[in-house]
From TrEMBL:
This is Leucine-rich repeat. Residues 26-142 form the Disease resistance R13L4/SHOC-2-like LRR domain. Pfam families: LRR_14 (PF23598). The keyword Chaperone does not apply. Transmembrane segments: none annotated. It comes from Macleaya cordata.
Protein backbone atom coordinates (compact mmCIF):
# COMPACT_ATOMS: atom_id res chain seq x y z
CA UNK A 1 0.00 0.00 0.00
CA UNK A 2 2.47 2.66 1.05
CA UNK A 3 5.94 1.17 1.24
CA UNK A 4 8.80 2.81 3.13
CA UNK A 5 11.11 3.21 0.21
CA UNK A 6 11.34 2.23 -3.40
CA UNK A 7 12.07 -1.50 -2.96
CA UNK A 8 9.69 -2.34 -5.77
CA UNK A 9 10.86 0.50 -8.03
CA UNK A 10 8.23 3.04 -6.93
CA UNK A 11 9.32 6.64 -7.07
CA UNK A 12 8.22 9.06 -4.40
CA UNK A 13 5.75 10.53 -6.89
CA UNK A 14 4.30 7.06 -7.62
CA UNK A 15 3.92 6.37 -3.92
CA UNK A 16 2.17 9.69 -3.28
CA UNK A 17 -0.11 9.14 -6.30
CA UNK A 18 -1.06 5.71 -4.92
CA UNK A 19 -1.76 7.18 -1.47
CA UNK A 20 -3.90 9.87 -3.07
CA UNK A 21 -5.92 7.40 -5.15
CA UNK A 22 -6.47 4.81 -2.39
CA UNK A 23 -6.73 7.16 0.59
CA UNK A 24 -4.51 4.74 2.53
CA UNK A 25 -1.04 5.57 3.80
CA UNK A 26 0.55 2.46 5.32
CA UNK A 27 4.07 3.11 6.56
CA UNK A 28 4.48 0.20 8.95
CA UNK A 29 7.93 -0.93 10.03
CA UNK A 30 9.73 1.93 8.26
CA UNK A 31 11.92 3.12 11.15
CA UNK A 32 10.42 6.59 10.78
CA UNK A 33 11.26 9.13 13.46
CA UNK A 34 8.69 11.64 12.27
CA UNK A 35 5.68 11.90 10.00
CA UNK A 36 6.74 12.61 6.44
CA UNK A 37 5.81 16.03 5.02
CA UNK A 38 4.52 14.37 1.86
CA UNK A 39 1.82 12.69 3.98
CA UNK A 40 0.61 15.99 5.43
CA UNK A 41 0.55 17.52 1.95
CA UNK A 42 -2.14 15.02 0.90
CA UNK A 43 -4.58 16.79 3.23
CA UNK A 44 -8.12 15.70 2.31
CA UNK A 45 -7.04 12.58 0.38
CA UNK A 46 -6.13 10.46 3.41
CA UNK A 47 -8.77 8.24 5.03
CA UNK A 48 -6.39 5.81 6.77
CA UNK A 49 -2.96 6.47 8.25
CA UNK A 50 -1.03 3.49 9.63
CA UNK A 51 2.35 4.24 11.20
CA UNK A 52 2.65 1.04 13.24
CA UNK A 53 6.05 -0.04 14.54
CA UNK A 54 8.19 3.00 13.86
CA UNK A 55 10.24 5.30 16.11
CA UNK A 56 7.99 8.34 15.98
CA UNK A 57 8.27 10.53 19.09
CA UNK A 58 5.70 13.20 18.25
CA UNK A 59 2.83 13.98 15.94
CA UNK A 60 3.02 17.43 14.33
CA UNK A 61 0.37 20.10 15.01
CA UNK A 62 -0.31 20.09 11.25
CA UNK A 63 -2.00 16.69 11.60
CA UNK A 64 -5.24 18.70 11.57
CA UNK A 65 -4.78 19.12 7.79
CA UNK A 66 -5.93 15.51 7.37
CA UNK A 67 -9.56 16.46 7.97
CA UNK A 68 -11.09 13.46 6.18
CA UNK A 69 -9.00 10.88 8.01
CA UNK A 70 -11.20 8.20 9.57
CA UNK A 71 -8.62 5.78 10.92
CA UNK A 72 -5.27 6.57 12.56
CA UNK A 73 -3.09 3.73 13.81
CA UNK A 74 0.01 4.77 15.76
CA UNK A 75 0.83 1.47 17.47
CA UNK A 76 4.30 0.70 18.85
CA UNK A 77 6.05 4.04 18.47
CA UNK A 78 7.68 6.33 21.03
CA UNK A 79 5.00 9.03 21.08
CA UNK A 80 5.05 11.01 24.31
CA UNK A 81 2.33 13.58 23.59
CA UNK A 82 -0.44 14.22 21.14
CA UNK A 83 -1.06 17.68 19.72
CA UNK A 84 -4.19 19.58 20.72
CA UNK A 85 -4.92 19.94 17.00
CA UNK A 86 -5.94 16.26 17.07
CA UNK A 87 -9.35 17.48 18.20
CA UNK A 88 -9.93 19.00 14.74
CA UNK A 89 -10.02 15.57 13.07
CA UNK A 90 -13.81 15.48 13.07
CA UNK A 91 -14.03 12.50 10.68
CA UNK A 92 -11.86 10.25 12.87
CA UNK A 93 -13.64 7.01 13.85
CA UNK A 94 -10.72 4.81 14.96
CA UNK A 95 -7.72 5.95 17.01
CA UNK A 96 -5.23 3.28 18.05
CA UNK A 97 -2.39 4.45 20.29
CA UNK A 98 -1.22 1.18 21.87
CA UNK A 99 2.43 0.74 22.85
CA UNK A 100 3.64 4.33 23.08
CA UNK A 101 5.05 6.55 25.84
CA UNK A 102 1.94 8.68 26.38
CA UNK A 103 1.63 10.10 29.90
CA UNK A 104 -1.51 12.12 29.16
CA UNK A 105 -4.09 12.71 26.47
CA UNK A 106 -5.18 16.16 25.34
CA UNK A 107 -8.55 17.49 26.51
CA UNK A 108 -9.34 18.08 22.83
CA UNK A 109 -9.76 14.32 22.45
CA UNK A 110 -13.33 14.93 23.61
CA UNK A 111 -13.98 16.90 20.41
CA UNK A 112 -13.72 13.77 18.26
CA UNK A 113 -17.50 13.41 17.98
CA UNK A 114 -17.41 10.56 15.43
CA UNK A 115 -14.84 8.47 17.31
CA UNK A 116 -16.08 4.88 17.72
CA UNK A 117 -12.92 3.04 18.80
CA UNK A 118 -10.14 4.25 21.09
CA UNK A 119 -7.32 1.97 22.15
CA UNK A 120 -4.61 3.16 24.55
CA UNK A 121 -3.07 -0.02 25.99
CA UNK A 122 0.64 -0.20 26.91
CA UNK A 123 1.18 3.51 27.61
CA UNK A 124 2.20 5.43 30.73
CA UNK A 125 -1.20 7.01 31.35
CA UNK A 126 -2.38 7.43 34.93
CA UNK A 127 -5.62 9.23 34.13
CA UNK A 128 -7.82 10.30 31.26
CA UNK A 129 -9.10 13.76 30.41
CA UNK A 130 -12.57 14.54 31.74
CA UNK A 131 -13.63 15.29 28.19
CA UNK A 132 -13.57 11.56 27.42
CA UNK A 133 -17.18 11.60 28.60
CA UNK A 134 -18.04 13.70 25.53
CA UNK A 135 -17.23 10.81 23.19
CA UNK A 136 -20.85 9.80 22.58
CA UNK A 137 -20.21 7.36 19.72
CA UNK A 138 -17.43 5.30 21.32
CA UNK A 139 -18.33 1.62 21.17
CA UNK A 140 -14.91 0.23 22.06
CA UNK A 141 -12.56 1.74 24.62
CA UNK A 142 -9.57 -0.48 25.41
CA UNK A 143 -6.71 0.02 27.78
CA UNK A 144 -8.67 1.81 30.49
CA UNK A 145 -9.36 -0.99 32.96
CA UNK A 146 -6.58 0.09 35.33
CA UNK A 147 -7.82 3.64 35.83
CA UNK A 148 -9.44 4.27 39.18
CA UNK A 149 -10.76 7.64 38.10
CA UNK A 150 -12.50 6.25 35.02
CA UNK A 151 -15.74 5.40 36.81
CA UNK A 152 -17.24 8.83 36.18
CA UNK A 153 -16.44 8.88 32.43
CA UNK A 154 -17.73 5.30 32.14
CA UNK A 155 -21.01 6.39 33.70
CA UNK A 156 -21.10 9.39 31.38
CA UNK A 157 -20.63 7.12 28.35
CA UNK A 158 -23.40 4.78 29.57
CA UNK A 159 -25.86 7.69 29.77
CA UNK A 160 -25.51 8.21 26.03
CA UNK A 161 -26.59 4.70 25.11
Amino acid sequence: MGSCNSKNGDSSADRVARWRSTGIVALRDCKLKMLRDEVLELETSIRTLDLTNNRIVGIPMEIDKLIKMQRMVLVDNLIERLPVSLGKLQSLKVLTLDGNQLTSLPDELGLLIRLEQLSITRNLLSCLPETIGCLRNVKELTGCSSFKDLEEPKEELKKTE
